[in-house]
């Protein structure tokens, strides 16, 4: 099966790549980056929800299952993406949210479809996963409807056969378009029972989600879904998000008759780095998946803080070791956009900048932005600063007052993205108003806002483009047909670029991102060369700071001891001690090779 040896790349559309400079990522942006993903070695793309939505929960509140949100593009655009991805050998799976719909969906608004949802005259004690009661009063029926997440996300009644038929039609629609599979959101939350026992309360006074998840009947629904997909005649992939920390519960949803794989949040949910914890989790995975089923491996997603901050603590060597665990394993690997560049967290400095409903609810409860940011899923959802990572716009730091003024406005809005450098360029020919403006195109939308916030367009300082700093050559230009500050009739903008390659630019962070990208690319190739879909863990051991695991005759050794970062000779001693041949020293205490025959 094609997915068994795949490396998937999660794309959070709104912040991946903005192709039309409206400040929002889009499908055309993904199309533009297919060559980039192909170079990296990606074989599968996971698209987060692209459907029309009020965006209460960033697209996981779907108002129309069979269309594309206008801010992302059109169905025609999506078809083009599928065709071009397939031409590059890349499969595409879609995020499908079938536990609930938006209350703006026509199904919920249609009185005749009331029984497609879950209603009670009096609520029980079930709590929403976003906090508060999971029941909301509806004036139309004078009853309460159930929402396991926000009140704008009404849960579907999967005990109703009409709901199944409607969702099967949705699945058929996207398969016929060319989608290669589905990531099924919170699939173990489906409501299949008409029993509503109160959930128990633990000793800490917290509710235990016992009766509102993993209900009897969910596996039967999944079997029907899998059978329906199988009958389409294509080799399609299904991966489920299971809201549980128990590996036993998670793996119980994967089987030849159920889901192909399920997400293992045992690594992704780690709050801090621990060799012992990673070792224990690997042992648990080996035990649970010893029957040939495939685990999934990831340290990053749109629901958690990025591992660059959370686990690696911005230590490059530790980050590389986490990359090895993510990619060189006996499972299906998932990367999150920007992970291969070492991108870190984005933390909004203003409450008005928070988009995550979980963080908004936390702020409303505590009135503390620090507390809100601790649970803020926006941290990993910041815009990828492609311009400061590629040759189109090198990382040039502003030095003249007008530039500094613009840059300060941007930094306030961009938060920690300052690490990649705001960039500036000069318009070499005057615009319709006779001005030559400095503009910072990290985000054209934000650049326009920053310029307007100043009250007037900044004047030109310096005598030549080289006055921007860094001795940037003005002989090599990259043209962009944009109008950052909104003047009518403005000429094409000329972006000054460096003569360096497509990654280095002028900033130290660009060089770091290039190194990380190359390392991920190398690991993905090693995964393809060494492993196949049938590889399993044969041996896992840990001695102090040294973690070792084996798959077939391939051995991976990670020395997490700090001294290994600075003394490469220690790695050669490790090779001798552990009886390697055909080994590769990848730096930072990383050794990958084959075990000698003894």
Automatic annotation (TrEMBL):
Lineage of producing organism: Bacteria, Bacillati, Bacillota, Bacilli, Lactobacillales
- GO MF term set: alpha-amylase activity
The record's SMART domains line, in alphabetical order, gives: Aamy
* Pfam families xref list: Alpha-amylase
Alphabetically sorted, this entry's keywords are: Glycosidase, Hydrolase
* Name used for this protein in its record: Glycosyl hydrolase family 13 catalytic domain-containing protein
Location of the Glycosyl hydrolase family 13 catalytic domain: 10-381
Q: Which family does it belong to?
A: Belongs to the glycosyl hydrolase 13 family.
The superkingdom listed in its UniProt entry is Bacteria
Q: Which InterPro entries match?
A: GH, GH13_cat_dom, O16G_dom_2
GO BP terms, alphabetized? oligosaccharide catabolic process
């Amino acid at each position: 099966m094609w997915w068994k040896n795949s490396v998937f790349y999660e794309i959070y559309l709104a912040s991946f790549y903005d192709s039309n400079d409206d400040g929002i990522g889009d499908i055309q942006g993904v199309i533009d980056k297919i060559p980039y993903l192909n170079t990296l070695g990606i074989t599968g793309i996971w698209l987060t929800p692209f459907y029309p939505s009020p965006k209460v929960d960033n697209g996981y509140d779907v108002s129309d299952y069979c269309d594309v949100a206008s801010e992302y593009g059109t169905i025609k655009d999506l078809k083009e993406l599928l065709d071009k991805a397939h031409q590059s050998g890349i499969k595409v799976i879609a995020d499908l949210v079938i536990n609930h719909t938006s209350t703006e969906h026509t199904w919920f608004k249609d009185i005749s479809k009331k029984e497609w949802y879950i209603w009670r005259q009096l609520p029980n004690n079930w709590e929403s996963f976003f906090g508060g009661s999971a029941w909301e009063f509806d004036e139309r029926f004078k009853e309460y409807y159930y929402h396991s997440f926000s009140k704008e996300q009404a849960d579907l009644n999967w005990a109703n056969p009409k709901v199944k038929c409607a969702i099967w039609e949705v699945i058929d629609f996207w398969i016929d378009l060319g989608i290669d599979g589905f990531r099924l959101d919170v699939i173990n939350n489906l409501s299949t029972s008409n029993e509503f026992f109160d959930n128990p309360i633990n000793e800490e006074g917290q509710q235990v989600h016992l009766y509102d998840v993993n209900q009897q009947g969910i596996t039967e629904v999944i079997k029907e879904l899998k059978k329906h997909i199988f009958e389409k005649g294509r080799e399609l992939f299904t991966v489920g998000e299971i809201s549980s920390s128990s590996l036993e519960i998670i793996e119980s949803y994967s089987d030849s008759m159920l889901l192909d794989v399920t997400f293992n949040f045992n690594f992704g949910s780690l709050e801090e780095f621990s060799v012992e914890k990673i070792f224990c989790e690997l042992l648990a995975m080996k035990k649970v998946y010893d029957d040939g089923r495939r685990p999934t491996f990831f340290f990053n997603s749109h629901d958690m803080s990025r591992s660059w901050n959370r686990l690696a603590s911005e230590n490059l060597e530790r980050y590389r070791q986490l990359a090895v665990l993510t990619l060189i394993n006996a499972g299906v690997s998932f990367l999150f956009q920007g992970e291969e560049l070492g991108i870190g967290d984005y933390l909004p400095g203003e409450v008005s900048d928070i988009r995550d409903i979980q963080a908004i609810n936390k702020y409303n409860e505590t009135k503390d932005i620090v507390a809100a940011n601790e649970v803020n899923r926006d941290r990993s959802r910041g815009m990828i600063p492609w311009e400061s990572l590629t040759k189109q716009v090198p990382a040039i730091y502003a030095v003249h007052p007008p530039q500094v003024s613009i840059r300060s406005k941007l930094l306030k809005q961009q938060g920690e993205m300052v690490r990649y450098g705001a960039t500036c360029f000069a318009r070499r020919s005057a615009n319709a108003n006779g001005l030559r403006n400095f503009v910072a195109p990290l985000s054209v939308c934000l650049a326009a806002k920053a310029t307007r916030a100043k009250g007037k367009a900044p004047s030109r300082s310096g005598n030549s483009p080289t006055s921007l700093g860094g001795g940037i050559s003005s002989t090599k230009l990259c043209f962009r047909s944009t109008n950052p500050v909104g003047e009518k009739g403005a000429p094409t903008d000329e972006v000054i670029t460096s003569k360096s390659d497509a990654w280095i630019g002028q900033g130290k962070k660009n060089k770091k991102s290039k190194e990380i990208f190359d390392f991920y690319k190398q690991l993905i190739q090693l995964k393809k060369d060494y492993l196949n879909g049938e590889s399993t863990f044969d041996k896992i051991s840990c001695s102090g700071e040294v973690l070792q695991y084996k798959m077939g005759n391939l051995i991976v050794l990670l020395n997490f001891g700090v001294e290994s970062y600075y003394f490469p000779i220690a790695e050669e001693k490790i090779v001798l001690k552990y009886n390697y041949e055909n080994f590769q020293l990848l730096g930072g205490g990383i050794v990958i090779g084959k075990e000698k025959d003894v």
